Amino acid sequence: MRSLITEMARDNKMAYRDSIDLMKKIIDISGQNVFSCNLCGKCTAGCPISDAMDIKPHQVVRLVQVRPEALLDSKAIWLCACCLTCVSRCPKMIDIAKIMEAYRTIVLSSKREDFIEYSPELSSLLPIQALVAVRSKYSMVHLPFYSPTVRLRKYFTRERLLMLMGGKKT
Amino acid sequence: MKILYYSGCLSQSKTTGLTLPMQAIANSLGIEIIEIPSICCGAFFTKNIIDMYGPVRVFLNARKLGNEVMTTCALCYNVLKQTNSLIRSDPKRRSEISSFFGEDYDGGVKVYHFLEILRDKIGFDKLSDIIKVDLKGLKVAPYYGCLLLRPYEEIRLDNPENPSIFEDFLASIGCEPVDFPYKTECCGSYLGAISLDSVIEHSHAIIRSALTSGAEVIAVACPLCHFNLDQMQERIMQKYEDISNIPILYFTQLLAIALNVEEKLLGLEQHSVNPRPWLRKIARIQHGV
Ligand code: SF4
Ligand code: SF4
């Protein structure tokens, strides 16, 4: 599957200005000063999910600074468990989970749909808290604070999002 | 001592072991708990205003009755505390919320976890005088998980990397807390709904680490940790052969056992790894058989 970046590069659409715009949005929603990152990697070292992530937590912080659009179609933003190990170990107190949440908000607000598909067997088993938490993390029940661009709306098809959220290989 | 008690959706849902013994425990400890109307706290903290409906509603309900609220669930505790701190630090969000509810909320209702009440208001040394059943020598692994400790700035319950409140609690009711390296690791929480494999992976590491440290039971404070470690244990064992069954108990259940609360209030039916054989072992220790 073509990535968002290649698609945009081909259409020559993701202008420098768009990139800066996205970075500002992410910093605004998450409230994190990504520029203070030391790139020490302690976040990734402690992250329980990092081995499953395509982009590791410390790379996330760096990418927000240099190429924020690269994270839009990453699996990492959906896999983050919000365990906050990274925050408690970061010497600069950067909350990476909030950055991940900012990305999810932007992607989800490009869709007005519910993306959760659990197996019936699991959903009868899972405690109510898990179901509620998953709903607030993965579905567009939020108010869209940030209006999406047409491009994002077109790019994130239902199938693509489900694939990213499930963390499956392309 | 009177305290407002928010039991969350637990009291109506499947995982009652955490909340069921609370009334009996409060009676034995001589505290009066006033339950506030249970609506869901949202179960996941986000900054989106719709998701903040739950926790703010809880606070508005609580505020009518007092300004301190206690909960046993690590998830509720985390969400409520983070909501409070966001409202306090973000005037814009506060005004949005107050116009949404038609009532201003300033983030002023203080949130306690039950462990915090035991530590700060009752005192662990006092607690050890009250307990009736001696759990001496029982090796319990305290599993904190994420929600009790992080993010530290907002929660401030204990040191996020090397906490001790759970150990102190266990020691005060007579158990022997075992130290194990995975006590603050994440179990995968609600990721089970999306990717069961990651839950199995992480829960396995936690259980194995507790077993290698010699634990006979794992104590938890969070319904999701309980689900992942207990209900998923069978699946974990299908995949990995290096672990054996270990009962997972809520800290309230352990406290209730120590306070000699009758068994039907312990909510043991909910467990998939039956803790009853283990309970019988305690009884044997007691009667010196
Ligand atoms: S731990 Fe903090 S400073 Fe270090 S790489 Fe991660 S985000 Fe940057
Ligand atoms: S909060 Fe997310 S990124 Fe940070 S350690 Fe946990 S899973 Fe990894």
Fourth-tier CATH superfamily name of the largest domain in chain A:
Alpha-helical ferredoxin
Radius of gyration of chain A over all CA atoms, rounded: 16 Å
How is the largest sheet of chain B built, in terms of strand order?
Answer: 2-1-3-4
Basic shape of chain A: globular
Roughly how much helix do the residues of chain B carry, as a percent range? Answer: 40-55%
The N- and C-terminal alpha carbons of chain A lie at a distance of 7 Å
Estimate what percentage of residues of chain A fall within beta strands: under 5%
Q: What is the assembly state of the chains in this entry? A: heterodimer
Provide the gyration radius of chain B in Å: 19 Å
Average pLDDT rating of chain A: 78
The tally of domains of chain B stands at: 2
The helix tally of chain B amounts to 13
Largest interface: A-B, 42 and 42 residues
Beta-strand percentage of chain B?
5-15%
pLDDT under 50 segments of chain A (min length 5)? 142-146
Helical proportion of chain A, percent range: 40-55%
Helices and strands of chain B: which structural class? alpha/beta
The rounded distance between the terminal residues' Cα atoms of chain B is 39 Å
- General form of chain B: globular
CATH architecture of the largest domain in chain B: 3-Layer(aba) Sandwich
Question: What is the number of strand segments of chain B?
Answer: 8
Q: Care to describe what's here?
A:
The complex is a heterodimer of chains A (170) and B (289). Chain A has two domains: 1-111, Alpha-helical ferredoxin (Fumarate Reductase Iron-sulfur Protein, Chain B, domain 2, Orthogonal Bundle); 113-170, no CATH class. Chain A has 170 residues and is mostly helical. Chain A contains eleven helices and no strands. The relative contact order of chain A is 0.15. Chain A starts with a helix and ends with a helix. The radius of gyration of chain A is 16 Å and the shape is globular. Chain B is of the alpha/beta class. Chain B has a four-stranded parallel β-sheet with strand order 2-1-3-4, sandwiched between helices. Chain B has a four-stranded parallel β-sheet with strand order 6-5-7-8, with helices on both faces. Chain B has helices at 22-29, 53-63, 74-89, 91-101, 114-122, 124-130, 152-155, 165-172, 196-212, 223-231, 233-239, 251-258, 276-287, and strands at 2-5, 32-35, 68-71, 110-113, 139-142, 176-177, 217-220, 248-250. Chain B has two domains: 2-114, Rossmann fold; 133-286, 3-Layer(aba) Sandwich (Rossmann fold). Chain A binds chain B through residues 29, 48-49, 52, 78-79, 81-85, 87-89, 93, 95, 101, 105, 116, 118, 122-123, 125-134, 136-138, 141-143, 145, 165-167, and chain B through 9, 13-15, 40, 42-44, 46-51, 75, 146, 149-153, 160-161, 184-186, 188-196, 198, 202, 223-224, 226-227, 231. Residues 46-47, 49, 57, 80-86, 96-97 of chain A line the site of one iron/sulfur cluster. One iron/sulfur cluster binds at residues 46-47, 49, 57, 80-86, 96-97 of chain A.
